[in-house]
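User: Here's a structure from my thesis project, written as structure tokens. My advisor, Dr. K., wants to see whether a designed sequence matches the one we expressed. Can you design one independently, without my sequence as a hint?
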């Protein structure tokens, strides 16, 4: 025996089938699934929105009030960090040492 849906009182006479449970219902009772917008489902079968599908957050543009000025830092041949005006002594083996 066939089951007929009475569309009286609805905004449209359209009849639709849920994409998940395959039940017949009014077209106004279906809505797009949040995770798959092309999939029209009923309220019972609708998934919760997955927040991992959102794009990554962008870093904030924060500037400091009164930042210290940058100082020039140079690398020596051996990879040690020095500031301008530091004096180094090179020994016979090629090592460099900071003069106290």
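Assistant: Designed independently from the structure alone:
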């Amino acid at each position: 025996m066939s089951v007929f849906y009475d569309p009286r009182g609805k905004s449209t006479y359209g009849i639709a089938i849920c994409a998940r449970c395959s039940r017949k219902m009014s077209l106004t009772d279906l809505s797009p699934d949040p995770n798959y917008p092309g999939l029209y489902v009923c309220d019972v079968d609708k998934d919760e929105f997955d927040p991992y599908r959102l794009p990554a957050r962008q870093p904030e543009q924060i500037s400091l009030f009164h930042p210290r000025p940058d100082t020039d830092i140079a690398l020596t041949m051996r990879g040690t960090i020095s500031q301008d005006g530091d004096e180094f002594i090179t020994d016979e083996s090629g090592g460099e040492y900071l003069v106290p």
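When you compare it with your expressed construct, this may help: The chain has two domains: 1-50, 70-100.
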